[in-house]
Amino acid sequence: MTRLARSHALALVGAASFAMALPLAAQEKVDTATIARIRAEAMDHSQIMDIMSWLTDVYGPRLTWGPNVKKAADWTMTTMKSWGLANVHLENWYVPNALGWANEYFALNAVSPNPFIVAAVPRAWSAGTNGRVTGPAVRVQVGCLAELQQNYAGKLKNAFILPAAAFAGPVNEFLAMATRSSDSALMNIAFPAPTVGRGGAGFPGAGNGGAAPPPSAICAQAAAAQAVATPVAAGGRGGGRGGFNVTGDTTALRWMQAQGVAAVLLGGRGGSNSIGGDIATDNGASRVTGAPRVPMVHVATESYGRIVRMVERNVPVTLALEMQNRFYPTDTASFNILGEIPGTDPALKDEVVMIGGHFDSWHSGTGATDNGAGSGIMLEAMRILKTLNLQPRRTIRIGLWTGEEQGLYGSAAYVKQHYGARDSTGFYPTPEQAKFAAYFNVDNGSGKIRGVYLQGMSAEWPIFDAWMGPFKRDGMRTLTNSNTGGTDHLSYVAVGLPGFQFIQDPLEYGARTHHTNQDVYERLQPDDMKWNAAVVASFAWQAAQRDEKLPRPPQPGAVTGGRGGRGGQ
Q1: Residue 262 CB: number of other CB atoms within 10 A?
Q2: In the chain, domain spans
Q3: What pLDDT is recorded for position 220?
Q4: CATH number attached to the domain at 99-170+202-328
Q5: CA 395 – CA 391 distance, rounded (Å)
Q6: CA proximity to 524, closest of 334, 307, 374
Q7: How far apart are CA 277 and CA 124, in angstroms?
Q8: pLDDT digits over 108-143, tens only?
Q9: Statement: residue 262 has pLDDT above 80
Q10: N or C: less crowded end of the chain, CB within 10 Å?
Q11: For the segment 47-56, what is each residue's pLDDT rounded down to a tens digit?
Q12: CA distances in angstroms from 334 to 71, 174, 364, listed in the order given
């Protein structure tokens, strides 16, 4: 189908769906004069890439509870105050026994049979080494803890464990890694086809392809004994794609620590020397005091495969690792960063429009696309509004969250404190809940904003369709009732508040930069970032100027009366 035909198809399909919305959209006021000023400031006098260099080059990465994220927050607050934002401050949130962590030195090399540099990064919250540690690479293939203990007891002193097979490959990239959203892709977002369940996927990251082998006799006996001991235990996730997941079992890690294992090497996710640096397969124990401490390293696919293939050919490989990591015992507090432009309408100034994104990042890059981009866009949007000396009717507030990568901790704690919480016993709103107007979030890299996920709040469709009017000619035309997850707008939606994530061009976010060492300044798209700041500032302005707050989803049933001493998260 040609591009023209795709555009015609989109128009035909959209016409029927928008028919009821257009009359309402025509009634929505759009401040085109102010939006034109916002776009001119955003595109012609942008400071977005300067902001991004400070957040990434100077203060990145920004791992939650680590030292850099606090330095970045101090710079951010100083900068917001210099722009004239009001009520700039931190608000703490808490997780018991949390630890800060930072890597201070790292080197991993092959010593023999041929010296070479191993492309790798430390795993977050990994233990360090006691100086330089040298030992053999050992390909460990087990289906359960009992088999690990029986087959390898006494054999792993100073060993570098390789728990997964080499990537099946090849890693040739015949298609472009960075992409823009086509008309058909946007149509599929706007009008998604019904989906079916995907079934079980096994352990994420446990291996690099292939079905799990049948259980060994040792593992079968261990499973039978466990079944007798705990006959009603729920089934686990099995052996996944690569057998027993040694990094996800606390008992296995404590055993390896006692055996004197040098390190566990974790294979990459496939190609281009991108090194994954998150802890997606962790159960979270490594982030707290008292957890087992075995050094762990993320290794690029190419380096990991080379080591595994030599070991499988009975060629001994000796590795050397020196990794200096520091833990920061804390009072378990982290923080959110807040600032605002106060409202000026006496009847509406206590109502709040919020924009935000998560401020924290992983550690292997500098946190540029995830989510320095979202934080920088929000900061630039606030700078634009303040520079133009706009006087919003409602208060416009920025919220930059930490702890998103660990489970939306920061935004969830903020929403709970200010707007209420919902649990199995009911919904408990705060007085501020009634004054909340809207929340807009960016957290999908630096790609150009193309529309909005409505999270099922179809009443917003004609409103946002009108607001997109000044941007439609340049590519922002897509609305969808679909939900999108995994980031901080969900904290608002969970308590019945209108929270939205923007639809963005994917670029190479999922293919290269997300949670890898490639998440750096050079992967940002400056023109897209400027556009995104203009869109966010315009949506915040429109929401602040409306006579009414945005429509809300059905409210959860509120429970009157207090719950006693329920503190923040």
Answers
A1: 25
A2: 23-97+331-461+480-538, 99-170+202-328
A3: 81
A4: 3.50.30.30
A5: 9
A6: 374
A7: 7
A8: 999 999 999 999 999 999 999 999 999 999 999 998
A9: yes
A10: N
A11: 999 999 999 9
A12: 13, 43, 21
